[in-house]
Design brief:
It is a single chain. By secondary structure, the protein is α/β, with parallel strands linked by helices. Helix content is 32%, strand content 26%. Strands 1, 2, 3, 4, 5, 6 and 19 form a 7-stranded mixed beta sheet that branches. The chain binds nicotinamide-adenine-dinucleotide. The site of nicotinamide-adenine-dinucleotide has 25 residues, from helix 6, strand 10 and strand 20.
Amino acid sequence: MQNFDLVILGGGPGGYPLAARMARKGWLVAIVDYTQEFGGTCLNWGCIPTKALLASSRSYHLLKNAADFGLSCSETSFDWQKIQERKNKITVQLRQGIVKMLEKSGVKIFNGYGQLCKDRVIKITGPEDNSVTEIQAKKVCLAVGSIPAAPTVFPADRSIFWTSNEALNTDKVPESLLVVGGGVIGIELGQVFAEFGCKVCVVEMMPQILPGLDNATAKRLLPVFKKAGLEILVGKKVEALAEKDGRAKASIDGVEREFDKVLIAVGRRVNYRFMENSDVQIVTEKGLISINERFMTSEPEVYAIGDAVKGPMLAHKASYDAMILASQWLGENVAADYSLVPSCVYTHPEIAWVGLNEEQLKEQQIEYKTGRSMFSANGKALTAGEGDGQIKTLLTPDGKLLGAIIWGPEASNIINEATMMSQFGINSHDFSRMIHPHPTLSEAFMESVENASGEGVHG
Ligand code: NAD
C-alpha cells in the first residue's frame, strides 16, 4: 500500500491549492477526485460555467441594445450550441491548467471515488473499471464539497426538474422556466435564460431574494430584475411539483401554474459519498462536518475544509480554509475568520457585499454612519452605459468600515476596496488620501466613504 504524508479527497478550490501548497513544502501529497479533471463544483458545475453563460447573455443584451451606443445592428440572434461550446472550452482550459499545476507541484493524482476507512486508509474505486486501489496517509483532508439539495418531495426526473447541473448543460433554452428559490443560483441562471427569451418565474419563500443581502438593496433590485425580464415572486412557496404531459405543474401558494422546465435552486448539501459503506463515521452537526479551530474532525488526523464545514459555501472561502490550514500545519498560529468573506452575484447589474449590513448593525446595537454614492454620477459608469447602481458604506463614528453593499458595474471587483479597508483597519480620513485613478468605477467607492465621513464634495 502506498503511503503519503497527506491525502486530500476532492480537487475543488479547497483541495487543489492545499495539495499544491503542501507538496511545494516537501510533503508527499496525493489528491483524489472522481472527475477526470479537477476544479470541483466551481469550475465544472458552478461559478465558471455560470459566468460564461452570463457573459454570453450580457453580450446578447448589448447587441440587442446597440442603438444605445450609436450603433446599428439589423438582425440579432444567438446559437445556444455555440454558447455551450464556448462555456465548455473555458472550463476545459482551466481544468487542464489545474492538473498541470498539480503535476508541476509534485502532487500524485488519483481518479476515482475515495472512500475514507479506518486508520486513514483511502479506498479508491476507479471511474471506469471499478478497480480498487488502497492508499494510506498520515493526514487526510476532506475537501469533498457540496451537491445540489433537491427536496425528496419534488420529482426526481432531471429532464424536467433540473438542478443547476442540468440547467448549465441544457441543449435548448426552454420556453418557460420556474425557478424554485431566489438565491444566487436562481437569480443568476434565471437571468441567463430570461435574456435568451425564456419566460422565467423565480419563486422565493422568504420576504426577500438573495439571503444575506441587506433588505433595502434586495427590495430595490426587484424592479431592476423585472426590467431584465424576470418575474419574481417573494414570500411565496413552491409547495408541490408534478409532471404533466412532459411539462411541469407547480403549486405556488395554492395557485397552479405550468412550465416547460423547473430549476430547483434551494441550496446545497455536503457530499457525503466518501463515508458510504465505510467503517468510519465522522461526527456531523446540522448537515455539516464538525470541526474545531484547527479543522480537525472527530477522526484522528482527519481534517475538513470548504463547503463541507461551517461558513459560507463559496469557492473563495474554501481556498481561504486551505490557506489557513496549510499555515497552521506549517506552524503559524492562525485561525479562520469569516467576518470578511465577500459575497458576489454576477448578474447584470452585479451585486456584492462584505462585512455587516444595516439590519445586523441595528440588531447588534453598533453605532454607525452611512455613506452613499450613485453610479449615475460616475463618469466611467456612464460612458459604459452602466449608470444604474449604488454603493452604500457603513462606518464607525471614527471612520472604520463595518460593511459595504454595492450593486452596479463591476461590483465584484470594487468590493475588494471595502474588504481591504476593513481588514487592515484603514480609517476614512487615511483612505481618502489614496489616489484613485480617474475615470474609474472605484472612485464611486471612495466617494461613498467620503460621503459617510462628511469629507466628500459629491454627496
Ligand atoms: P441559497 O441558499 O442561496 O438560496 C436558496 C433559496 O431558496 C433561499 O432563499 C430559500 O429561502 C429558497 N427556498 C427554499 N425552498 C423553497 C421553496 N419551496 N419555494 C420557494 N423558495 C424556496 O441557495 P442556492 O441559490 O441554491 O445556492 C447554493 C449555494 O451556492 C449558496 O451557498 C450560494 O452562496 C452558492 N453559490 C454562490 C454563487 C456566487 O458566489 N456567485 C453562485 C452560485 C451559488
